[in-house]
Amino acid sequence: xxxKKILVVDDEVAFTRGVKANLDAIYDVRVENHxxxxxxxxxxxxxxxxxxxxMMPDMDGCEVxxxxxxxxxxxxxxxxxxxxxxxxxxxxxxxxxxxxxxxxAKPVTLDDLTTGIELYLKKKA
Amino acid sequence: xxxxxxxxxxxxxMLVVVAVVGYFARQNHNYFEKxxxxxxxxxxxxxxxxxxxxxxxxxxxxxxxxxxxxxxEVIQEAFAYGPGKIRNVGFSLLDxxxxxxxxxxxxxxxxxxxxxxxxxxxxxxxxxxxxSSESDVRRALADRHVQxxxxxxxxxxxxxxxxxxxxxxxxxFVGLLRAVISLETLQAIVNRNVGGGAYAFLFDQDGRxxxxxxxxxxxxxxxxxxxxxxxxxxxxxxxxxxxxxxxGEEGSGICQLFPVDSPHEAEAVIVAFSPxxxxxxVWSLVSGIDYDAVSGPVNRNARDNIVFxxxxxxxxxxxxxxxxxxxxxxxxxxxRLYQEQKKNLQDLSSAQSMLIQSAKMESVGRxxxxxxxxxxNPLAIILMGVKYFRNNIKSKDEHVPVFLDDIxxxxxxxxxxxxxxxxxSSITGxxxxxxxxxxxxxxxxxxxxxxxxxxxxxxxxxxxEGLPAVNVDKNKVEQVFVNFFMNAVxxxxxxxxxxxxxxxxxxxxxxDWVVVRIEDTGMGIPESVLKDLFVPFVTTxxxxxxxxxxxxxxxNIMELHGGKVILxxxxxGPGARATLWFKIQQExxxx
Lengths: 125, 591
What we know:
Oligomer: heterodimer
CATH superfamily of the largest domain in chain B: PAS domain
Radius of gyration of chain A: 13 Å
Shape of chain A: globular
Mean pLDDT of chain B: 81
CATH architecture of chain A: 3-Layer(aba) Sandwich
CATH topology of chain A: Rossmann fold
Strand content of chain B: 15-25%
Number of strands of chain A: 6
Number of helices of chain A: 5
Strand order of the largest sheet of chain A: 2-1-3-4-6-5
CATH class of chain A: Alpha Beta
CATH topology of the largest domain in chain B: Beta-Lactamase
Low-confidence stretches of chain B: 587-591
Number of helices of chain B: 14
Mean pLDDT of chain A: 83
Low-confidence stretches of chain A: none
Strand order of the largest sheet of chain B: 7-6-11-10-9-8
Strand content of chain A: 15-25%
Distance between the termini of chain B: 40 Å
Largest interface: A-B, 19 and 23 residues
Number of domains of chain A: 1
Largest sheet of chain A: 6 strands, mixed
Structural class of chain A: alpha/beta
CATH class of the largest domain in chain B: Alpha Beta
Number of domains of chain B: 2
C-alpha cells in the first residue's frame, strides 16, 4: 500500500525539516515553506492531508485554507492546523476547531502528531 | 447633642425674639400710658379750673345782683311798707326786680330787721316766718354785713348755702336780702360741664361735701365717706392732695382708692382740684376720673398689639417649623441623591478601574500571544529534533537519553509557562451576571471531585443561609475556586479536610460583601513565599510543573470583580486559609 501523502506547510524551515525527518518513515511527506505556493504544491503533490501553520508572513493559514476550499480539486483534502496560537489543553479536545478545521497545538509531540494525522485521514476515508 | 441644639435653635431664637418684642412692647405701652395719663391729668385740671371759675362767676353774679337789688328804691320801700303793704303793692313788682337773681339761687327772700320774711320767691310759703333763729340771719342782723354762710341746716334739714345782703334805706338798716342755694343745685352746677367719665365734688375748708354724686353725703365731712366703709385709701397720697385742696391751692395727682369689698384691687384715680371763693369761704372743687378709664384705650391697644404680635409670632413659628420640616425633607432627598451619586461614582470608578485593568490585560494579552507564538515555534522545532534523535541516534553513551529527557522536560515546562501566560493575559472581558455563589462553589467542587477523592480529602460545607446574589463571571469565579481547591488537595497529599464557609459581612454598611472562606488542614504556606503569594512566577511547585501564575490569575480575576482575596496560614493550627470577598450590588437584591 502506497504511503499516505502529507503536505506540511510552515514558514519555519527547521520545524518542517523536523516533521519531515520524523514522519518520512510512515508517510510520503512534502514540505512547503511559502504559503503563496501551497496551491501549486497541492495541485502537483495531491496530498491526502495538509498540516497547515496559521501564522505565516506572506499569507496566513486561514486564507490558504479558504483558497484551497474554493478550488474544486482540493476541496476534499482534509486540513489540520498546526499552530502556536492555541494551548495544548484546548487542542486536546478533539472537538476544538479553528476556522472550521481541527488543530494541533505547537509544540506538538510526534505521538500527538501521528495520532492526529491518523484520526483525520480516517475521517476522510 | 449637636443635632438637638440644631433642632431647638430656631425655636430658641424665636423665643428670644418674642421676649425682646414683649419687653419693648411693655416699655412702649408704659411710655404711652404715662403720656396719656399726663394728658388726662392736665385736661382734668383745665376742666376743674374752668369749672371753678364758672362757679366763682356764678357766686360773683349772685353777690353783685343782690348788691344792686339792695340799692333799688323799690326794694328799700318794700321794707318800709312791711308785709301787709307789699301784698297790696303786689308781688309782681318785686318778682320783676328779682327776675335776674332768681336764676342764680334756689330761693330768695326779704327779711325785715326783726328777722321776719316779708317776701319770698319763687315760693311764698316762708312769708311771715321768723328766721331770726337761723344762724346766718341772726349773725347778719347783728353784724349788718354781707356774709356768705357755711353749710346751714334750715328747718327742712336740707343742707344749704346762704348769702345775705343787708339793705340800707337812707343810711338806716331796714332788712336783709337772702339767697339760698341748695347743695343739690350746687351739685348740678358742678357737674354741668364735667363729662367723659369724670365726676366732681366740692368741699369746704372744713372738709365737708358741698357737692357729691351721692347726695346722702352732702354736708358730711369727707371722713364720713371712709368711716361708712365705702372706701379706704392710700392715706398719704390722698391726704396730701386733700390738704392742698383745704388750703385753697390748685393741683392735681393720682391716688389709690381701695374699695372695701375688694381691698386688694386698688382703683387708681386721677384727681384735679381748684379753689372756689364764696364770700370769705374758700372751697375746693375736685374732679376725678378713673385711671383705668384713661389708660383703657392704651391697654386695649397694647392688648391688641400683643394679640397681633402673638399671631405674627405664631405664624412665624409655624413658618419656621414648616420651613424646617421642608428643609429636612429636602436635605434627606439631597442626602439620598448624594448617596446615589456617590454610589454611581463608585460604580463608575470601579468600572473605570476594571476597564483600565482590562485594557492593560488586553495589551498584555496581545504581547503574550505574540510571545507564545514566537516561543512555541522554537519549542516545536526542539521537540521534533529531540524525537528524531531519540528514534535515529543509537548512542552507547548513557547520558544521551537522559539529556534528551531533560530537553523534552524543559520544552514541556516552557510550554506550560507560555500557556499559563496566555491564560493569565486572556482575562479581559467578564460576562457579569447575577449568580448564586453557592451554585458556583458546588460546580467547582464537582470539577475537582476526582482529585479530592484520590487525595482522600473530606469536604465540609458551612454555607450561610439567605445570602444575596453576587454579580460575577461564573466561569472565572469557578476558575478561582478550582485553583484554591486544587492547591488544598496538593497541600494534603495524605488526606485531610477542606472546609468551605460562606457568610455576609458589612450588611447595611457602606460596602456589603459575600465572603467565601476556604480552609485546608494541609502543610500550610512556607514562610518564604508568604508575602509574595500573588507575585507572578513565585511557586513552590516548580519541580512538579508549577508555573507560579495560578494565584496571580486568581488575584486578577478578583480585582476585575472589584473583590478582594487574602491567603494566609491558619493561626489556630496547620493549614492555609483563603478568604474571598465578593461585593454585593444593591440592585442585585437578596437571593
